[in-house]
Structure formats: structure tokens, C-alpha cells
Specification:
The chain is of the alpha/beta class and 218 residues long. 44% of the residues lie in helices and 15% in strands. The chain has helices at 13-16, 25-32, 51-63, 94-110, 126-145, 154-158, 161-169, 177-195, and strands at 5-11, 40-45, 71-77, 85-86, 89-90, 114-118, 149-151.
Length: 218
């Protein structure tokens, strides 16, 4: 019998694939790359949401989609909106961003769900990119402490001409088809190893790591 694998991709507009004319983004491309049969994937990316916003909504949404007994998996990816500056201040301070992600991952682990965290990508604004780079490092350190798979994409995408060009040609934050394909290629080896790995044992009673608007519209 085929394993009932269900994956919730939870995060912001990069998870949602904003800017991709194929409406797949990296999450949709990863889901379709799994060999040996389909998985059930849920895209729960919401534009402009910070870790604070995501923490407030994610569990109810995931719990409804990950029934007990399935191979339940959660992918978190967020943080760019936290580093956006509004009124001279970032929308969410770095320490709170890390605390929010930690709260989400700890709750997911208590359900027995398999976890993977994908780091935030760069945008056109270099001042914001420096804040995002530091947040990426903090996220990576927190995930290492919790023994959670983390995949940083920031440096590779920042150095990728196609990603940065499409971000600049678009709304200042999101790439087009080619940029999301680059993003997907960076994630695919780790994704396949993770998705094909053994599933966690569900906890009792539960569900089973190549952009015209403002860069804050992520």
C-alpha cells in the first residue's frame, strides 16, 4: 500500500509562489519532483505575513490537513517580511522572529510531525538583505539546536544572476519562473532525502530542513 504522505508548506509569498506565471513557486515544483507516486501537498503561503502572523494561524490550518495516521510533514519558510522596514523600524525584531519560529517548530515536534525549515531569500533592497542574512544565520543556529533540518538559500540566491535580475525586473521581491526554478534546484537534493526518509510516529491524539511594488509586499 502506498504511504499517505501529506506536506504543509507554511509561510509567506515566496512559499505561495508570487511572481511565478506557472503559479507553482518552489513548493509546487518540489511536490511534483517526488518519485514513486504522488504526495498530498498544501500551500499555506500568505503574502506579507511575518513570523508573528504565521504563528497566529499555522497550527489550526495544519492540524486540519494532517490527520492522525498519515505521514505528516511540515515545511516552514518565512522571515523576509520580518526584516522589512516600516516607519524606521523593522516589522518584527530579530529576537522575536527567532522566538516565533522556535515556538512553531516546538509545537510541530510535539505533534510528531516531520519538520523542515527553508531560509528566507534575498530581495532587491541591500539594506534589507543584510538584515535578512543575519536572521537566516539565527534561524540556522536555532534549528541546529533543535536538531531540525535547515536549508539556507540566501547566499546562493544572492550570488545568482538570474534570481537577482528577475527580482529587480519584477516587484523588487519576487522572481519569475526562472528564479523559482533556481530556488527549487537548491532545495531538491535535501528535499528528496527528507521526503523519502522514514516518517515520525504521530503523537497520541494528534495528526501524524535567475520583482514593480514595494519589497514589503512579500
Amino acid at each position: 500500500m502506498q504511504k499517505d504522505t501529506r506536506v504543509c508548506f507554511i509561510g509567506d509569498s515566496f512559499v505561495a509562489g508570487v511572481g511565478d506565471p506557472d503559479h507553482r513557486g518552489w513548493a509546487g515544483r518540489l511536490a511534483s519532483a517526488v518519485p514513486g507516486g504522488p504526495i498530498t501537498s498544501y500551500n499555506l503561503g500568505v503574502r506579507r505575513q511575518t513570523t508573528r502572523d504565521i504563528e497566529a494561524r499555522w497550527f489550526v490550518e495544519a492540524q486540519a490537513r494532517l490527520p492522525r495516521g498519515c505521514d505528516a510533514r511540515v515545511v516552514f519558510s518565512c522571515g523576509v517580511n520580518d526584516t522589512t522596514e516600516e516607519g524606521g523600524e523593522t516589522r518584527v525584531e530579530r529576537a522575536e522572529s527567532v522566538s516565533n519560529l522556535r515556538s512553531m517548530t516546538e509545537l510541530a515536534k510535539r505533534q510528531g510531525w516531520q519538520l523542515w525549515v527553508v531560509g528566507p531569500p534575498p530581495v532587491f533592497d541591500e539594506l534589507q538583505n543584510e538584515r535578512t542574512r543575519m536572521l537566516d544565520e539565527d534561524f540556522a543556529a536555532m534549528c541546529e539546536q533543535q536538531n531540525i533540518q535547515y536549508c539556507s538559500v540566501f547566499d546562493d540566491l544572492r550570488a545568482n544572476e538570474l534570481w537577482m535580475r528577475q527580482v529587480a525586473e519584477g516587484d523588487g521581491a519576487h522572481p519569475g519562473r526562472g528564479g523559482y526554478e533556481v530556488f527549487t534546484q537548491l532545495l531538491t537534493p535535501t528535499w528528496l532525502a527528507w521526503i523519502e526518509g522514514s516518517s515520525a510516529t504521530p503523537a497520541a491524539g494528534s495528526g501524524a530542513q535567475n520583482l514593480d511594488g514595494a519589497a514589503d509586499s512579500v
